[in-house]
Task: inverse folding
């Protein structure tokens, strides 16, 4: 087992390149299985554990998966006939449910074991099932696996009961090869929803409206391979923006889409940080004192739930009272107990964290309870006086490529060591 050791108190300075979006890649890779002809060459794929998991799942289904380099994959799914995804890798990660929509779309049947992922609350797939059934599929869940079958898929009008990224993407994928037109309403607008739609269109799909309230999918007969580049990771970029502010540093974050970061930038500016936008970069630096703010997570374009945990680490260090209201997941404050070990003053009431900011966190031995909680502990460690040791960093590796190298390049004293 490995851990991160951080000697805190150093302002981050310099520039850092952001990788491709995890939340896009984990849907795009399963969707590549829908190309019955040709190869998909996908660039800007993040070198993270969730992607490695998906590579193994694709191979288990009969795909040819070749790594051209650390960030480019070549996927040939033309000879795939297997429609069952029931491996340890499938059970390990949440996004494996995208194989349901992809396999159903191409083969009209699929069996996929129920997925896992970070323990941040109940994440039902009822809206996915609602969509698949509306398209004409029969869905059964037994022995821990979801089985979907359809004689043929047909277009439908589907209104999601809640705004859900997973179901929006999964049903959009399933509808791509359905007969007729599917209209999806009350859909998620996140950048990775748009990215997946653009990828499908590059393979020959006919999808319009991604990024708006209504997505229209006109079914096509088949999809073929394509060349595609994944968008930059909004959440990784937001994490580095917050880290720059927390350490009172000066960091230019490159290879980003600034529009995707507007809600994060707005909160940092409200706190007193200086944020400067470039065409494909964003600079964050601090010249004076920061102050507490109130944050409420919301679907895009609101403040991302995946950034609230890193934000709580920052707010723990600034004077004043702050509130973080988590409106997406009911159990996304597990990291608070770890921050308290470092001297943070935080009280949780329901889904709201009440933070009494103070300037001095102290290094401690802490745990990365989930992916984004791990990023929060890294930021806390960068700010804290003394040494912080973070264990269970396999969670961090699921979404942040080589995090210690990137922070080291900005002047942080952070190393990865094998636990004794």
Result:
């Amino acid at each position: 087992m490995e851990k991160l050791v951080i000697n805190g108190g150093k302002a981050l300075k310099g520039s850092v390149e952001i990788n491709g979006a995890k939340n896009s890649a984990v849907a795009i890779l399963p969707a590549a299985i829908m190309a019955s002809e040709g190869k998909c060459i996908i660039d800007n794929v993040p070198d993270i554990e969730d992607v490695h998991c998906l590579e193994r799942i694709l191979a288990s289904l009969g795909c040819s998966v070749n790594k051209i380099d650390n960030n480019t994959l070549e996927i040939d799914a033309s000879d795939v006939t297997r429609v069952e995804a029931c491996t340890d890798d499938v059970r390990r990660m949440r996004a494996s449910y995208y194989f349901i929509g992809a396999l159903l779309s191409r083969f009209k049947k699929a069996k996929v074991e129920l997925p896992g992922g970070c323990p941040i609350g109940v994440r039902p797939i009822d809206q996915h099932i609602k969509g698949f059934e509306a398209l004409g599929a029969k869905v059964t869940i037994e022995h821990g696996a979801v089985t979907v079958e359809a004689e043929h898929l047909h277009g439908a009008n589907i209104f999601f009961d809640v705004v859900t990224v997973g179901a929006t993407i999964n049903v959009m994928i399933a509808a791509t090869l359905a007969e007729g037109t599917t209209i999806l309403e009350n859909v998620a607008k996140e950048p990775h929803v748009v990215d997946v739609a653009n990828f499908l269109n590059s393979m020959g799909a006919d999808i319009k409206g991604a990024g708006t309230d209504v997505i229209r999918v006109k079914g096509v007969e088949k999809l073929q391979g394509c060349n595609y580049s994944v968008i930059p990771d909004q959440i990784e970029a937001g994490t580095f923006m917050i880290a720059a502010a927390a350490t009172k540093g000066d960091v230019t974050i490159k290879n980003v889409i600034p529009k995707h970061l507007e809600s994060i930038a707005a909160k940092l500016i409200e706190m007193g940080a200086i944020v400067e936008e470039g065409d494909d970069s964003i600079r964050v630096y601090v010249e004076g004192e920061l102050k507490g703010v109130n944050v409420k997570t919301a679907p895009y374009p609101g403040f991302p739930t995946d950034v609230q945990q890193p934000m709580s680490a920052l707010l723990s260090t600034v004077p004043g009272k702050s509130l973080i209201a988590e409106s997406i997941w009911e159990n996304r404050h597990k990291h608070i107990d770890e921050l308290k070990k470092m001297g943070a003053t935080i009280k949780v009431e329901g889904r709201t964290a009440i933070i009494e900011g103070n300037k001095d966190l102290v290094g401690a031995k802490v745990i990365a309870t989930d992916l984004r909680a791990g990023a929060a502990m890294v930021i806390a460690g960068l700010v804290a006086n003394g040494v912080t040791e973070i264990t269970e960093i396999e969670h961090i590796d699921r979404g942040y490529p080589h995090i210690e190298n990137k922070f080291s390049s900005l002047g942080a004293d952070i190393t990865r060591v094998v636990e004794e």
About this structure: Residues 117-122 have pLDDT under 50 and may be disordered.
